[in-house]
């Protein structure tokens, strides 16, 4: 196996001098391409990643330390990171494609209908968000009465509290939900009277 000859000044000099970079590139392009071709099976991706490796080498040329290894070993380290980043990107793209697979594209009419439905259900969404913020005792009474169809007395018995306590908690829960379900108040503006200064 032919050992590449180290260039003049190493990668740090290559980053500053286009002629040295060309020499550096020609010296290592085959080895980097082979490294990538062993790990990636698409020729376009190999070409793109090869370019990324050499761009990254220019950006990180100041990190090269000849005492820690040869230029090619350093480039292989960059290439490994580049391949790993490409695999992460591809995995994210696959995951995104999987999430939308099977979903049909919505026509403008479908979107308009869904927007109308979303607007119509805004109060319900506010009520559900408010229900989640209720104190445990109030939420438990409300669920037993509204969902499980118990009477106030039965709900109190189920929770081990007095019926009057259950009524108070139910009243508070309903009040909180009614306030949450109400549409936001419009800002009020004071009427401007004649002669008033702005």
Question: Can you describe this structure?
Answer:
The chain is mostly helical and 198 residues long. It has nine helices and no strands. Helix 7 packs across helix 9 (163-181). The longest helix is centred in the middle third of the chain and has 30 residues, at 71-100.
What's the short version?
The chain has 198 residues and is mainly alpha-helical. It has helices at residues 10-14, 18-37, 43-59, 71-100, 108-120, 122-133, 136-147, 152-159, 163-181.
Q: Describe the main β-sheet briefly.
A: none
SS strand fraction: under 5%
Helix-and-strand structural type: mainly alpha
Secondary-structure element pattern, one letter each: HHHHHHHHH
The number of helical runs is 9
- Overall geometry comes to elongated
State Rg. 34 Å
Straight-line distance between termini: 87 Å
Keyphrases for this structure?
198 residues, mainly alpha, 9 helices, disordered N terminus
Topology:
Layout: H1 10-14, H2 18-37, H3 43-59, H4 71-100, H5 108-120, H6 122-133, H7 136-147, H8 152-159, H9 163-181
Helix pairs in contact: 2-3, 2-4, 3-4, 6-9, 7-8, 7-9, 8-9
């Amino acid at each position: 196996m032919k050992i590449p000859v180290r260039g003049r000044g190493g990668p740090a000099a290559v980053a500053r001098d286009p002629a040295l970079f060309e020499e550096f590139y020609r010296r290592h392009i085959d080895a980097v391409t082979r490294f990538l071709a062993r790990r990636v099976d698409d020729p376009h991706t190999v070409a793109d990643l090869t370019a990324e490796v050499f761009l990254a080498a220019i950006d990180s040329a100041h990190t090269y330390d000849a005492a820690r290894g040869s230029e090619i070993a350093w480039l292989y380290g960059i290439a490994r990171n580049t391949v790993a980043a490409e695999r992460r990107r591809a995995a994210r793209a696959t995951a995104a494609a999987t999430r939308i697979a099977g979903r049909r594209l919505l026509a403008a009419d479908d979107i308009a209908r869904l927007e109308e439905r979303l607007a119509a259900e805004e109060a319900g969404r506010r009520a559900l968000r408010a229900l989640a913020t209720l104190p445990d005792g109030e939420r438990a009474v409300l669920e037993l009465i509204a969902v499980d169809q118990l009477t106030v007395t039965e709900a109190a018995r189920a929770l081990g509290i007095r019926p009057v306590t259950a009524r108070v908690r139910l009243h508070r829960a309903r009040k909180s939900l009614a306030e949450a379900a109400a549409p936001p108040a419009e800002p009020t503006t004071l009427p401007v009277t004649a002669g008033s200064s702005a």
